[in-house]
């Protein structure tokens, strides 16, 4: 679904990703792990086209087509979704207004209000969310856990082809992590893929993941199955820091 080939990325003349290669496969959950400050969140921003990061080499292909020349909204319309580490607050725009506008921007036909409300209520019930969130301004005065749950709700409603979750588990309590994990399980099917970016293993304990990639200083130094995440939890990243 997504191919990253020999990517080099700079910010203010500093290389943050170098000779970076990664294949995200259909119907799989990939996890990128690594200590803080090694380029994990940079990767998510580059995939979505953040202009603060300059791609100086390589390419990013989505369903075999380069997306480097596309704006962020164009990438989103192709079916790429990013759940932010620190979700934005928008005063005066309700959750329901935001989501319906987003859906209508990616669909050829406008979704009816009845169908939209029906789907929203189903997702709220499945995630056990307070329905008052539907009518509150987007993320305004939300707790950290509510913001992260709201990102998962957006993922379910928008139903992208590739969902990138950047540190979605950061700062969450046990119950919130379960909600996020359940949302990922609800979303996952044979026609989409998930990329989880994290520095710890909390969220992985409730999920079955297919590939774990260790990122150190802008490069993937090891790829394995879920047992690699268990190893990191037990031993940390120290032995991988010398592989770059």
Characterization of this structure:
This protein is α/β, with parallel strands linked by helices and 244 residues long. The chain contains seven helices and twelve strands. The strands form three sheets. It has a six-stranded mixed β-sheet with strand order 6-9-10-3-11-12, with helices on both faces. Helix 4 crosses helix 5 and helix 5 runs parallel beside helix 6. The radius of gyration is 18 Å and the shape is globular.
**Can you count the helices?**
7
Can you count the beta strands? 12
Derived from helix and strand composition plus strand pairing, the structural class reads alpha/beta
Q: Could you tell me the radius of gyration in angstroms?
A: 18 Å
List keywords for this structure.
244 residues, alpha/beta, 6-stranded mixed sheet, 4-stranded antiparallel sheet, 34% helix
At a glance:
The protein is of the alpha/beta class. It contains seven helices and twelve strands.
Helix and strand layout, with pairings?
Elements: E1 2-11, E2 14-24, E3 29-33, H1 40-48, E4 54-62, E5 65-66, H2 72-78, E6 80-83, E7 90-94, H3 95-106, H4 113-127, E8 137-138, H5 144-158, E9 162-166, H6 174-187, E10 193-198, E11 211-216, E12 219-224, H7 226-235
Parallel strand pairs: 3-10, 3-11, 6-9, 9-10
Antiparallel strand pairs: 1-2, 1-4, 4-5, 7-8, 11-12
């Amino acid at each position: 679904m997504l191919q990253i080939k020999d990517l080099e990325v700079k910010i203010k003349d500093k290389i943050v990703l170098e000779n970076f290669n990664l294949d995200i496969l259909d119907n799989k959950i990939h996890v990128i792990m690594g200590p803080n400050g090694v380029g994990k969140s940079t990767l998510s921003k580059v995939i979505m086209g953040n202009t603060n990061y300059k791609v100086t080499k390589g390419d990013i292909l989505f369903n075999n087509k380069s997306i480097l020349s596309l704006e962020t909204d164009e990438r989103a319309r192709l079916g790429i979704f990013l759940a932010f580490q620190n979700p934005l607050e928008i005063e005066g725009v309700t959750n329901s207004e935001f989501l319906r506008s987003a859906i209508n921007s990616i669909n050829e036909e406008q979704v009816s209000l009845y169908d939209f409300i029906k789907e929203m209520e189903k997702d709220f019930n499945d995630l056990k969310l307070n329905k008052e969130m539907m009518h509150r301004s987007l993320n305004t005065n939300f707790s950290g856990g509510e913001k992260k749950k709201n990102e998962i709700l957006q993922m379910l409603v928008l139903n992208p082809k590739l969902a990138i979750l950047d540190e979605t588990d950061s700062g969450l309590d046990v119950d919130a992590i379960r909600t996020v994990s359940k949302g990922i399980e609800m979303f996952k099917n044979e026609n989409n893929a998930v990329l989880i970016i994290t520095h710890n293993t909390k969220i992985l304990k409730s999920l079955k993941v297919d590939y774990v990639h260790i990122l150190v200083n802008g490069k993937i130094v090891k790829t394995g199955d879920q047992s690699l995440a268990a190893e990191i939890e037990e031993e940390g990243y120290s032995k991988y820091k010398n592989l770059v």
